[in-house]
Sequence to fold (527 residues):
Amino acid sequence: MLIRKPSDIKPSEITDRDVYRNRRQFIQRAAAVLAAGAIGARRAQAAVPGKLALPAIRKSAYSTNEPPNSLKDITSYNNFYEFGTEKDDPARHAGRLRVRPWTVAVSGEVRRPRTFDIDELIKLAPLEERIYRLRCVEAWSMVIPWVGYPLAELIKRVEPTGNAKFVEFRTLHDPEQMPGQRAFFGSLDWPYVEGLRMDEAMHPLAILCFGLYGEVLPNQNGAPVRIVVPWKYGFKSAKSIVSIRFVEKEPVNSWQKANPREYGFYSNVNPNRDHPRWSQKRERRIPDFFARRETVIFNGYGDQVASLYAGMDLMKFY
Amino acid sequence: MQPLSKRIAAAKAAVFALALAPLGWLVAGALFFPDWLTANPGEFIDRETGRWTLRFLLVTLAVTPLRALTGWNWLLRFRRMLGLYAFFYGVMHLSSYVTFRRFFDLSEILKDIAERPFMTAGFTALVLMIPLAVTSTNAMVRRLGARRWQLLHRLVYVIAPLGALHYWFMVKRDITQPAIYAAVLAVLLGWRIIAWLRERQRVMVPRPS
Fold:
């Protein structure tokens, strides 16, 4: 197993300084508004991370030393169909999402099923910064400094039974807060479902994520809790999770249900297995104009995860 | 007579400049205002040039029905320019695909065209536009003769549906946008079918035996 030395570069040194400073200013101002109890405070509450600070964050040897994308790129360009199918829809509409109170129900084939309050879940294990590559199935990629802890930490605590072969994740289903769920055609079946095989979920690279750039996860990126599975296409990393269920049968994830020919259960990043409608050989590293970067199998995490798929035909189990 | 043709010349110049605005906007965004083109500028340029190709195709196809409905025969004077702009943005779209999306990887490009139906459709549509662009000059109309020229230019009835299909099958899940384009195209082509059926009826019915 290859474990890289953690990078000495702090994200704050890489992010565009203006972006960073503006964000701090915004948080400070918004906090002042909250303190004053001014009009609009209720609205601001959902969007302001300042109030919901994260505990101490450690560095991780799993982080890449590639320079992360700017906070602006990460928070203004992504897929989150619950808020609409355009890339700017999440940033435009996610302000409506109320991230407190929030609970995550852990159920199914476990000896200790229970419902976690989000603030309790954040404190379950020490938080780490994980700077990961993210490869979207649409052939663009970013480098993102997530904050979270290994999903395995949660899994160990609920004690899965021998029948637990897969883990199924569900995203909040509330059309009131998630306007994309009101679309009467052209979207997905709700709630959004994703799944991992038990050994994938237990892998130290798979994290339960609560933050970005050292602060609470912005709503559009899957607040208040999401998973990040960096060797798989982005859509596998379910956002705004309300339920984690341990099951015996392979879950049917939302994209597979929508189009089984194009999207499978595994969805490992694989330049050799093209999407039926486009090549996966190269990718655009945002904000580059050109898709000049060669995509690497398992998104470059092959040294760590390839053994999970030993003997499997990756062209068949896509 | 003179004032009218003068006004048309001025309007043509205005339409010419206006039709370049989308390109100007993309170029300005690429050079000076990155915010205009999202975090994924290559993709954005790809999409926008494609959409503008379709828009110009639809506007070109709208000239005849509009002219028939309003009696504004001067509309015809803009049709060639609009059609050529459709071709122009089509070429931009292909160039953006070759450079930004495929980074000049010829084998991947050929694979796209040969194996992916929506790419085959889009590429065919653009190739079919070439003879129309080439024969768009007055000299070529004279050389071909009006009848043959018109016959050739009916290719647009193949090109536009191929373009709409290309868009439809490219989309990952939400087909709202391509459906709007397809609906407009259906109206424009449907109008022609109805007009043609009526014309046939008019010719056939009053014939006494």
Chain B has a mean pLDDT of 94. Chain B has nine helices and no strands.
